[in-house]
Amino acid sequence: MTLPLPALPDASVPGLLDESVPPGAYLWEPSPDVTRVTEVLEAARAARWRCALAPLEGVTDKAGFLAACQSGMELPDWFGRNWDALADCLTDLSWWEDGDPEGYLFVLTGWADFAAAAPEDAATATDVLTAAAGFWSARDTPFAVLLG
Asked: Which InterPro entries does its entry note (predicted)?
């Protein structure tokens, strides 16, 4: 069952990186300046977080969503292009590690348009992303998802 995601104000993004804001899955409305997404990713990298961007602009279905995730996160070749495989990849990030990251940040842009075009797929994606964030909340390494 999909619960509404909390909104993360743009100004709270640094709090994710210093853990004054709990990691998790958030709706995020970055400032209109397109460079803000880039700045957030650069700040995450500077804080030694492993991060990825998946643009969802023009995505209207599950296949497009999973393809955007695969491309943006550079998912491994064994990724099965289904919800269970995405969940597996997000809860076992050994394939994504580069050294010893301080945290993980996954930013998806174009979320509102995707959710409007494919509400059932967006609900399932929300469940998968929220479950992954919940899985990581019980571990020492934070995991955050921003749906912008």
From this structure: Barstar (IPR000468), Barstar-like_sf (IPR035905)
- From first to last of its 148 residues, the chain has per-residue pLDDT tens of 565 788 887 778 889 999 899 999 999 987 656 678 999 999 999 999 999 999 999 999 999 999 999 999 999 999 999 999 999 999 999 998 778 899 999 999 999 999 999 999 999 999 999 999 999 999 989 999 999 9
Residue (of 77, 78, 75) closest to 132 by Cα position: 75
> To 10 degrees, what angle do helices 119-137 and 83-91 make?
20
* Under 8 Å between Cβ of 146 and 108: yes
Dist. CA 147–CA 106, nearest whole Å: 9
Q: List residues bridging with 44 in a β-sheet.
A: none
∠ Cα 44 112 77 (to 5°): 60
